[in-house]
Amino acid sequence: MSAEETVQKWIEVARWSPSADNTQPWRVTWAAPDPQTITLVLRKTPLGAGSTPIENELQQLALGSLLTSITLVASEDGYVVHQRAASDDGLTLQLKMSTVKTEGWSELLRRRHTNRRPLNRLPLSPEQLEFVGQVCAEHQGLSLIDFSSQKKKAARLVARLDLIRYQSRQHLDHLLKVLRFEAKAVDGLDVKSLDIPLAAIALFWLLNRWRTLRVIFFLGLEKIFAFVGCRWLIQQSGHFYLLRAQDSSLSSWLEVGRCLQKIWLEATRRNLGLQPFGHTFITYEAHKNPEQFSRDHLELIGQVQEELLRLHPSAQLSTAGIFFRLGKPHKQPVVRSKRRSVAELLAP
After folding, report:
1. CATH number of the domain where residue 199 is located
2. Which tens digit of pLDDT belongs to each residue from 118-176?
3. Using one digit for the tens of pLDDT, what is the confidence trace for 255-277?
4. Are 146 and 187 members of one domain?
5. Which residue in 52, 70, 73, 144 has its CB near the most CB atoms, within 10 A?
6. Residues with Cβ < 8 Å from 257, sequence gap 6 or more?
7. Whole-number Å distance between alpha carbons of 347 and 343
């Protein structure tokens, strides 16, 4: 197999990596300086006008997931990451041939993409959960906070953050921008992937405008959205975690993305469902750019942060991190997110 065919094979599988709102913000260039070495340059796509400040960090998170995927799928062909250099706009990998090969990662990457959701609140045994802590321990500077024994309280606090999504024009506009109601759409979130009732999906489709939604949210409907779309889902899973870094550097966002993807793949191996929750991004953005929030919302975020710290003294939400829920799925996925082609991802 030629170097070009090898790279195309890797990208074909690795493109199933997760990204915030299914933005797939990756472009890849490659070179083969000698028969035993392949150099990959993974770049983030340029941010467009009107992008929010945190989108750069979210791209770095996605890049970390892509890095894990490429590292694992390349290991099936006997390549290992020998060296990598990170910058604000991308990542350089040097993969070299070795005598060690691993198997099964390509299958797991494709299975992970089916994205089966945890919808069984029965807890797993400590033996079934060992892999979560083990994977996290492999990533320097990360910590894993288990809210499973305080799941109801944590779900209530995260749902309060979810209210901001519907009460803030900036965040609601972003949500409406990324929602997709047509199955053929490649970018954005297929609305069915949100696991919300059909009535809520119909409401989003009919009232997909800020002014209209504000009228009905004035009646308190946003509380129902936050309850069903957030609090209920967390409580319907066996376990709830916060994966966080010690700081908010781009390299920390990269490491969180690497670790999350590995945990997700190991969960897939065990036929478990995992779903990330992006509410840490709201508190992170409020810490970094408080001028984008109203006084009431900043006060609410501060209250939620204080209460989370009471639940766990390390639950600081002003650094790189992400919530996720884990458990046994009891149904097949209702939708598969679309992916860009290999040709689109391989930059000229």
Report:
1. 3.40.109
2. 888 889 999 999 999 999 999 989 999 999 999 999 999 999 998 888 777 777 777 77
3. 999 999 999 999 999 999 999 99
4. yes
5. 70
6. 60, 61, 62, 63, 64, 65, 66, 67, 68
7. 8
